[in-house]
Every structure is written in structure tokens, then in C-alpha cells.
Design goal:
The complex is a heterodimer.
Chain A (H helix, E strand, L loop, with lengths): L3 E3 L2 E5 L4 E7 L6 E7 L5 E8 L4 E4 L2 E6 L4 E6 L8 E8 L6 E2 L3 E6 L1
Parallel strand pairs in A: 2-11
Antiparallel strand pairs in A: 1-3, 3-8, 4-5, 4-9, 6-7, 7-8, 9-10, 9-11
Chain B lengths: L3 E4 L2 E4 L5 E7 L5 E7 L6 E7 L2 E4 L7 E4 L5 E6 L8 E8 L8 E2 L3 E5 L1
Parallel strand pairs in B: 2-11
Antiparallel strand pairs in B: 1-3, 3-8, 4-5, 4-9, 5-6, 7-8, 9-10, 9-11
Classes of the chains: A mainly beta, B mainly beta.
Chain lengths: ~110, ~110
Amino acid sequence: GEDVEQSLFLSVREGDSSVINCTYTDSSSTYLYWYKQEPGAGLQLLTYIFSNMDMKQDQRLTVLLNKKDKHLSLRIADTQTGDSAIYFCAESMNDYKLSFGAGTTVTVRA
Amino acid sequence: DAMVIQNPRYQVTQFGKPVTLSCSQTLNHNVMYWYQQKSSQAPKLLFHYYDKDFNNEADTPDNFQSRRPNTSFCFLDIRSPGLGDAAMYLCATSSQRAYNEQFFGPGTRLTVL
């Protein structure tokens, strides 16, 4: 099965908060990431969290990590139309390899 | 601006006809990666270069090869493309000191007829 799992779709109203969830299986993951992919573009690193942290906040983005449940979430406050994209969760250990989830397509409606 | 550039953005080839995809970077990063991303799937690492050292993933088919003639350029060669090789191919780079921060190019979408 997949090492990293995400729900496939999320629809949110403009101005509301979005929460994208991810679960992973490898307890030895060192870093956990959120990437954003807009149509026709490559992946953009949004933020990442080290596995000994519970939370990281960066402007409108808040990452929560529950290491016991192997659950990672990304909250986007005040969601805008420009936030419509595919969001990928990824994990890595102490090497160069990233393991990605299949991505969550976020659609922001007016 | 420092960036990762991929050419071409769209590539069409015929079944069995060799094709080469190109990636260049102005970040002076010593690690370069190639990922394959099929429709609605997660990007999958094919291989990476650490400087000139080539590191192949165990499940990467022999049909896929790579060359890195210098720090700035890396090529993906598909020797005999099959229909199942149609995908987006993503190039990424990272520095040795911040290997966990990978910078991606816009990708090349490969169509196999």
C-alpha cells in the first residue's frame, strides 16, 4: 500500500479555513513536507516540519504533526482563489528521497 | 532569478523512439533528481545525482537512463518509450547542506503515440 495517504479532494469557500490531512506509515520519518502544484507548474515547497516538532506556523499556514498517530495536517487561513491547487504531503528520512502522497486537489469557490 | 528550467515543456514521441528530456539549474546545487508523475498519482523518484555520483532507485526500469555532464545540466533518456511511460517528468535540485529542501522545475509532459 501507499506510504503516504491523503484525501483526494477538498472544496472550500473563499475566506474560510482549509484543512488538508495526511497520514504516513514510516515512524522513522525525519522531515514532513507540504508542496503545492498549480496547473502546468512544478511543485513548490510550502513548508516542512522536523519530526520532533508538533506545530509550525508561517503566515497563513499552520502545520500540525501528531507523531503518535502519524498524522500531518496543513491549515490555510483565509483561503483565497490563488490557493486553488494540488497539495502534496511528503516524508523523508535522513536521505535524499521524498515519498509523496497522491495529492489533494483544493478548489476554492466564491 | 535562480531557478530550475526544463525543456521542452511538452514532448511527443512515438512508441519505441528514443527521447531525451533536459533540465538545467542556476542554483549551483550539487544534487539533481528526476521524478515521474503519472496522472493523479504521486511523483515517484527515478534516480538522483549527488555531484557526479549516480543513484538509481531499485524499481526504476532499465529503459530510463540519465546523464549529468556538469553541475548545471542533467538529462533523462528514455531508450524505448512505451505507452506506459507517458507522464509528467519533474526535475528537482537541492544543496548538500539543505538536502531536504528540493526545488522543482515546471516539468515536461511526455506523450507517447
